[in-house]
Design goal:
Layout (H helix, E strand, L loop, with lengths): L2 H15 L3 H19 L9 H24 L3 H15 L8 H17 L8 H12 L5 H13 L1
Helix pairs in contact: 1-2, 2-3, 2-4, 3-4, 5-6, 5-7, 6-7
């Protein structure tokens, strides 16, 4: 068992003992998503810590999107629960880059892409190819894309 998956399991056991319903249900769903990912495909396999992190990030993103949908639908109580679950999952993810740090990485990538001959809005794909590996797991794709568009626009 990977160390991150083992930590999730240990935290789930502690949450159950403490009768922390929010934490235990969130961790159960996350561990289930990890197990589902492990058996997806032709053969069962053990996920690496990086792959487990990607599953956790996907689950956290689902919670944020659900919270927004509940808030727009006028269901504040459900939105708050989803937000709380998202915050709980964020604790298992690497620290997110600040806007300034992200803009610095994107600016360097824009300069690199321009040096390679990419100009204007059409350079977005080239810049994203440079930026994505550098910020993997540390910034949401939507934030990265918005920063790239802003800096390419001038």
């Amino acid at each position: 068992m990977t160390t991150l998956k083992a930590k999730l399991q240990a935290d789930l056991n502690a949450a159950i003992r403490e009768r922390d319903e929010l934490r235990s249900s969130t961790l159960r769903l996350t561990i289930t998503a990890i197990q589902k990912e492990e058996v997806a495909g032709k053969t069962k396999r053990e996920l690496s810590d990086d792959e487990v992190q990607k599953v956790i990030a996907k689950e956290a993103k689902k919670r944020r999107e659900a919270a927004d949908a509940f808030a727009q639908g006028g269901r504040a109580e459900s939105a708050e629960r989803e937000k709380a679950e998202g915050v709980l999952l964020d604790a298992y993810l690497p620290k997110q880059l600040s806007d300034e740090e992200l803009d610095g990485i994107v600016a360097a990538a824009v300069a690199e892409a321009k040096a390679a001959g990419a100009e204007g809005p059409r350079a977005m794909g080239a810049v994203m190819k440079i930026v994505n590996p550098k910020v993997a797991g540390q910034a949401d794709g939507g934030r990265v894309a918005a920063s790239v568009k802003r800096l390419l626009a001038g």
